[in-house]
UniProtKB/TrEMBL annotation, chains A, B:
Keywords tagged on the record: Aminotransferase, Transferase
EC class of the enzyme, as a word: transferase
Protein source organism: Blautia caecimuris
Annotated ranges, domain Aminotransferase class I/classII large: 34-378
Protein name, UniProt field: Aminotransferase
Similarity comment text for this entry: Belongs to the class-I pyridoxal-phosphate-dependent aminotransferase family.
Coiled coil: none
């Protein structure tokens, strides 16, 4: 009774639901504070105070007909201009309101740009490990997802394989830095090398290859790490941003696309993306939240809280003998499974009430993802359990 | 540089933009209060007070991590249960939380259900005149839109033509009552006859035909008119609702789908729709607004204000000699153009600073749509101008 394309999603979804329900069962049985749930990327740091203040002030003092009303499908002009100016100040870019389209979070923004540029059968390249939902987004427009194998040493993109896999049919490359699920940040050198390959291939094929930068974690960078702003390195870049993590507003579905003037045929792409935003059903990003964002444009997330979690979990796990790359950003740890089948490892974790996501959910089996956007207490309390888990797999403690 | 499917949309969109820009030009030239802009369906009645109160109270008193956080993709369970109970009280239905999926407005809800059930090449039937965007939604999933000709006497659906046009390939029928752009309400007899045809055709073809009820105007009914709740008449009904008009929140993008237990293979359709909501990029309906809706579930729109507008405009126009059906709901008047080419009539209207939308934008040329969700003053001040416009077309005043 459902569309054929939806059938595999429904089948796969029941596996996710089973995991979710098992987590709930454990929490009921042992108490929520005795279950170490590292499975969800839901920010644990509350939205900064300015969000509450802006909501209350706007509700009390703005004309509701405007505050909750329709605006240009791309979003309120003043909101877009405010964000553009903030980006220009921070990154030395040169955007204005017209380069921004407010979207229902980054997921919707990615759908909007893919609908805008992708023809059926065209290829979109992603670097494993990657957020598996990218595959669903590309299939929504009958595109073909092309995976680049993971470099499990550095988790930086394998640019040699990228160069080999770009064809005349490549329409876009999606990058995500700071990165889910590994926490790595793509360095400026990596970005420059990536841009050079794309430039070369565009010339070779006489094509346009869009670089789509999915960056909900931009603000979550540690130890002073810089996150290069990609439009400055490659003209045909589209940025998809979300306030889900930076302002802890994931449920509000608020973000934007940046489509720079430098992008080939920019005006047409902007017009088409505005239409795609409308006809995919979003119509526009939620109006009150747009205005809230504009008031909080320079608010900062409490990165220190996540950083404290990062160090505690990273140090705790490596001390037990687990191997993982030290994350530079986002709020995930991508840990090597001590056995080839990481699902077996995830199962073993449940005995200690530890919930982890298998790496095969990110096209990178043999690893597991831990989301450390939890309370510091959860992390500290989980460490003795991780120690037992390590012992079960005969890992050796660091001396 | 854009997808081929997007090209016709971009071309068509510039026509809409031209109209919009011309409206702005007139307002700049003559002053906004001297331009009679009947082109937009943006509610003029502000959101009821309970919306503001709920926003402020929730922002001040709820845990922001929950208030702005992720929830089940279908929406907060308590919100869905509250709405289900409200529907049950009002319409004698028997829904619970699981039958509701909160969506980013009705437009997103329609996309979600079409993605859920529609295979490429399958047919979706609509009754002209209709909201032209339905065509875009159906094309998003490579479906085929099938139009039923307008019955310009009553603007009720032509059920004979419907019966002839249903094929083995018909997957869904979209209805919209109270109706944009005519304001008619489909009577219970009409709905019963429609349901009987669908039942018969389902048997004939051994198929499932979904009746999709797009009902953002449900609450806007005048003179005590009843709007039948369609799930009670036909099992395979899916309801798409929006708070855009009933609570004057069009910019907030908040609505829901109802998928009843009676619907064929209901559980699978519900599961698939939840996934479609996620992978189309909405992920979930905006979280704060979900909670606001639950608090305002029994709030009522100020229908009296629209009713006053309706009578003033309807009586004023018919007195000048214009012909139109008296709307029973929504906030539109669908007026017969005094010349066959209604675009010529719209152009003539601009000389009197009257902005109207040509009926060809609703697949019904020869008519124009006037949205009377404007101030009462605008309507009163426009009437002398309509009189001049009528004179230009030699219409005879009612004696």
């Amino acid at each position: 009774m459902i569309a054929e394309k939806m059938i595999p999603f429904v089948q796969n979804n029941s596996a996710i639901r089973t995991m979710f329900e098992e987590g709930n069962r454990l929490k009921k049985q042992y108490g929520a504070d005795k279950v170490y749930d590292f499975s969800l990327g839901n920010p644990s740091v509350p939205a900064p105070d300015c969000v509450r203040e802006a909501i209350v002030d706007l509700a009390n003092n703005e004309d509701p007909v405007i505050l909750h009303g329709y605006m240009n499908n791309a979003g309120f002009e003043d909101v877009r201009e405010t964000i553009a100016q903030s980006l220009n100040r921070r990154f030395g870019t040169d955007f204005s309101a017209k380069n921004l389209i407010m979207t229902v979070g980054a997921a919707s923004g990615l759908n909007v740009i893919l609908k805008t540029v992708l023809n059926p059968g065209e290829e979109v390249i992603v670097f494993a490990p990657y957020f598996l939902e990218y595959g669903a987004y590309v299939k929504n427009y009958d595109g073909k997802l092309v995976e680049i194998s993971p470099d499990t040493e550095t988790f930086q993109p394998d640019l040699e394989e990228l160069e080999r896999k770009i064809t005349a049919n490549t329409r876009a490359v999606i990058v995500n830095s700071p990165h889910n699920p590994t926490g790595v940040i793509y360095s400026e050198d990596t970005i420059k090398a990536l841009a050079a390959i794309l430039e070369k291939k565009q010339k070779e094929y006489g094509s346009v290859i869009y670089l789509i930068s999915d960056e909900p974690y931009r603000e979550l960078a540690y130890d002073g790490a810089e996150v290069p702003y990609l439009t400055k390195y490659y003209k045909n870049t589209v940025v998809g941003y979300s306030y889900s993590k930076s302002l802890s507003l994931p449920g509000e579905r608020i973000g934007y696309l940046v489509i720079p003037d430098d992008l080939e045929d920019s005006e047409t792409v902007i017009a088409a993306a505005g239409i795609a935003n409308r006809i995919l059903g979003s119509v526009n990003a939620p109006s009150l939240m747009q205005k809230v964002i504009a008031r909080c444009v320079d608010a900062e997330v409490d990165v220190a809280a996540y950083d404290k979690n990062r160090l505690a979990l990273y140090n705790g796990l490596t001390a037990c003998g687990f191997q993982c790359i030290k994350p530079q950003g986002a709020f995930y740890l991508f840990v090597k499974s001590p056995v080839a089948d990481e699902k077996e490892f995830c199962e073993a974790g449940k005995k200690y009430n530890i919930l982890m996501v298998p790496g095969s959910s990110f096209a990178c089996p043999g690893y597991v993802r831990l989301a450390y956007c939890v309370s510091y207490e959860t992390i500290i309390n989980s460490l003795p359990e991780f120690k037992k888990l390590a012992a079960e797999f005969s890992l050796t403690e660091e001396s």
